[in-house]
Amino acid sequence: MEKDHEATLLVMDNDRLSLAIITSILSKHPPHLHVLNPIDNGKLAIQACTGHHPPDLLLADISMTDINGLTVCKTIRRDNMTTKILMMSSFDIGRYAQAAFDAGAQGIIHKDSPQTILTAVRRVAAGQPLSYEGIRFQTPRDSFLRIKEAKTRELSPREVEVVELWSQGYSLQEIGERLSLSPTTVRTHLQHSCDKLGAANNRALISVWMARQ
């Protein structure tokens, strides 16, 4: 009789010391996961997670030297709907939470304590996406489908004009005056753009739009 599949965990961090510590912690207190050899390179993480045998869970640092961790996440999610991705950072995660959601992650945590990491890894590995200040992260499949749909739903020329001005800091009133539209119509264009690009709200739309440029 074959043994049950043991879920695999890959850790990506460009800080060698941090990488060693986190890997050691997860190896000594495994949440029923097999910890793979860690990597300190975003390109290798993408290759590992888009290959024939991707890990079940990727614990990825945001601040990478070669490729930003959020870019790594979104690149993986465009092709992979099974690997769970948990982002982490030593900085204020509030700065990155929405971007992590947009990139298809299942959560984001601060690298402040072993218990924080263990608790989050256990939860995400069990198929339970995290939440952060109103942002409810999705499952790998749902985030994959959201990103895939967004890629096929392009903005109209008018929506592009509105979103471009919005990302530059113009108010609804100012955009309306420049484009001869009412503030209500501008708001409607922004909402349609959010729906098409998979942004949670108008503020998140700015980061999504900037990432596409």
UniProtKB/TrEMBL annotation:
Q: Which residues form the HTH luxR-type domain?
A: 148-213
Q: What's in the keyword line of the UniProt record?
A: DNA-binding, Phosphoprotein
What would be an example GO MF term here?
A: DNA binding
Kindly list the positions at which 4-aspartylphosphate occurs in this protein: D61
The portions of this protein that span the membrane are: none
Residue ranges of every copy of the Response regulatory domain listed in the record: 8-126
Read off the PROSITE patterns from this record: HTH_LUXR_2, RESPONSE_REGULATORY
Per UniProt, what is one Pfam family of this protein? GerE
GO biological process entries: phosphorelay signal transduction system; regulation of DNA-templated transcription
Instruction: Output the PANTHER family linked to this UniProt entry.
Output: TWO-COMPONENT RESPONSE REGULATOR
Question: What's the protein called, per UniProt?
Answer: Response regulator receiver domain protein
Q: Which organism is it from?
A: Parascardovia denticolens DSM 10105 = JCM 12538
Q: What is the lineage of its organism?
A: Bacteria, Bacillati, Actinomycetota, Actinomycetes, Bifidobacteriales
